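Tutorial, part two.
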Amino acid sequence: MKVISIGAGPAALYFSILARQRFPSWDITLLERNARGDTFGFGVVFSDETLSNLLEADPPTHAEITASFAHWDAIDVHIRGETFRSAGHGFSGISRRRLLDILEARATALGVTIEHGVDLADPERVRALRGECDLLLGADGLRSIVRTIWRDEFRPSFDVRKCRYLWLGTPRRFEAFTFAFAENAHGMFQAHAYRFDDSMSTFIAECDEETFARSGLGDAPIAETVAYLEKLFAPWLGGEPLVTNRSQWIQFVTVRNERWHHGNAVLLGDAAHTAHFSIGSGTKLALEDAIALADCFAGGGTLDEALDRYEASRHPVVERTQKAAQDSLVWFEQARRYLALPPWQLAFSLLTRSKRITFESLGKRDPAFADDVARRFAASAGVAVAPTEAPPPPMFTPLTLRGMTLANRVVVSPMCMYSAADGTPGDFHLVHYGALAQGGAGLVMTEMTDVAAEARITLGCTGIYTDAHTAAWRRIVDFAHDQSGARVGLQLGHAGRKGATRLMWEGIDEPLAEGAWEILAPSPLPYFPHSQRPRPMERADMDRVIAQYAAATTRAVAAGFDLIEVHMAHGYLLASFLSPLTNLRSDGYGGSIEARARFPLEVFDAVRARWPEERPMSVRVSATDWHPHGITDDDLRALAAMLKARGCDIVDVSSGQTVPEGKPVFGRMFQTPWSDLVRNEVGIATMAVGNIQSADQVNSILASGRADLCVLARPHLADPFWTLRAAAAQGWDAQRWPVQYAAGRSTLARG
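Running the prediction step on this input gives:
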């Protein structure tokens, strides 16, 4: 097998080492454009997990690398005069030049040919080289010529990020992976710093575009830039200088490729993918690419089969890493958002930014740090904890909204049951909501409950527009209050253009075959092409709907609900006014977000006017339509600010379901970033919802300041007693149990 690599970085070098060990007859040549020792950057960082992979793949290389390591296990966060240290993380740094020297020496000793200073800018030469070998490695980094030549086959995408960063070094020896935030008249800069040998540290300075523009550094000579940063970060540099190495301000580019191989050409490392430096994964991914590719050849079969195995095995792993890296880089892009948080909470938010570290894993790595976070969070909730007492997990701290205090931060999400008779909740609902209330959640929300018969989604939806409805809901609320510590919230809604449809299990959002009623919307757009076309609302329709919401609110007061929520999400009537996809009006109720929000806010005002002053009010919103022409983040900010000004106490931040062609990107806690945006930019309490599955996720979201309440849907369908189980699993004995079930607590504790 004749192998030629375009590029001689870590991926190509390590693959050549592993390949020559397993296949001594292979003829491997690496062609590198840079002179030997001429490399960008200063140090690279590895986790302990990465090191174990290297040990297993090639022990001699592992021994050489680890002998040159600077090792540490702590992360320091410096913000506004305070320092927070979290231990137990396990990192090692090494000079990038030293790493390349080790790999190159090992490869050369195994018979690999390495040529430096080779000009490979000519596409025709690269095409010719491909024809001269059995395997062509595209290991030539971010600006890969291999990827460029066969662009149509690899189908790359490039996401140029917002922040500017500058890669520097310093003789200052940092004892921990260090994040420092510095503010001046121009804005905020952040530093990512770590030691990589006995005398030097990497020092990456980063700032957002607005700060960069105000600083004037874009046009400044590098010496002037260095002097500026030395002054700014003087408290952490300890009098040491910053040094450059081909340093310039750049923007990070996230590279993805739909395919990683074409014919006998295959991509490795940065040519195939990039991951933001804030999680230290670029070189890690390159080395693990090399391991995976070598393993796939060792598995036998044809060249195509080996490359197919390589791509199939690595692509999902890399996608997960890139997702974590994306979460991390976005955190730093919007770091100014978190300056309003207490410094300890900003530090915890930083540590948990990529979801790889959580409240629970921090407790295992550094129990003292996690305990301090829990104590500070409890104090912020008004809970006094004696030094000798264990603090409550964040999810088991109270939250007060106006005159309502929730015993904990867990919320049962509104979930339509489609089981009412003429809008009246029956025995099913009593058992359903009664069990959920007894299950320990601080707040139980009803399913979307409609303000009129013609406002229903389906014939099975609940309503609150007759005396029978009020009495039925009163029975449920009284049971919850008498038999549990839960508060009960009513979600008020109107289906709009998504009304007159079948029960969920008969065809979700599909129109009724018969018995349909007239439906309303801001514009005459059917949900599906075969759905009923709604009638555009006139002023008289708006006045009637507002009156229906007001009357329903009066009934909600009589039913004893503790909180009322206006449903402005998921494509229903009020949401369809808010979204530019469904509101095409040219009058005062369409156009800008302020105009599109006009009618929904009129509804809100009518409900707030009827709802007792001492009881809180929430609104559920769709933060995005998952459509390029839908709701924007700026729309969300504006809407949340308008709701806050009108007396909304908390925003329930959901997303999507506006149009059937929306393309949501699901994942763990996938809607929490919008809760984070609303809470920390608009300054209003939020509920986070969307694939929140575990108590650890709830604690992590709350402690990091991304939400004030966590809303869980399907987990509560699977287990109405989810909160009680979570309390037992965390050893939290103060959670209230129904007296009839208290004997079961010991069973959960043993489990």
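The longest strand covers residues 187-195. In part three we will examine how such features are distributed along the chain.
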